[in-house]
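Q: My labmate handed me this sequence with no annotations at all. I'd like to see what the chain might look like in three dimensions before we decide whether it's worth expressing. Could you predict it?
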Amino acid sequence: MTHAIVIGGTRGLGREVVRHLSEAGHIVSVIGRRPPPDSDREIANSQFFAANMDDGEQFANLLANIVETRGKLNYLVFCQRYRDKGDNWSGELAVTLTATKQVMEVLQDKFELEGDKGVVMVSSVFGHFVDKGQPVGYHVGKAGLDQMVRYYAVHLGRKGIRVNGVTPSTFLKEESRDFYLNNTALHDLYKTMIPLGRMGTTADSAKAIRFLCSSEASFINGQNLYVDGGLSLVWPETLARQISAF
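A: Here is what I predict for the chain of 246 residues:
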């Protein structure tokens, strides 16, 4: 069986990714600071490993141990997000960039020699656009992550390791679904703005990640796939007219 590691796979999109990779037949090693809900511990062929990404040496040892006990890698997915209440700037850069770089350095030689191999980094539209609700560290971290996708796609390509990004827009997840569904006016506004006429879900992005973690994507490398229903294509003036009519 193929082996996938998901960093930050216990909440939100990460949890959905674990489910989809399991359904695709992968052995899934899930790394996070908090354990997944009890219901997710029964996902076939998945195992949770607790880790603090701030402890570099301990984290590196854990990664090496996972590969030794569960097998060499086929796929690696980064879904981690800074959640602490400390300094946003240093925290965002440490979790989004430094930790990703560390994992890549530890694991790039731990992939299978043969067969399809890939890395997916989950980014954000705020790596390109600006949101008043997110701090500068979040924007810079995601922009840097987009460049890391391109860097590693070039440098690891000769090893047969594809590296791609997935960029979701605002989506419905278990933790926020009730907020949007109960706020009818806001939910309707999103449906008006998005060309496909609905908000995205964690499943939409997880399916894109599952595709990139498969031989179906064997010649896709260094790309950033937007999963936003076409929202990023709409000119702001068009959105303004839609909102005014709405």
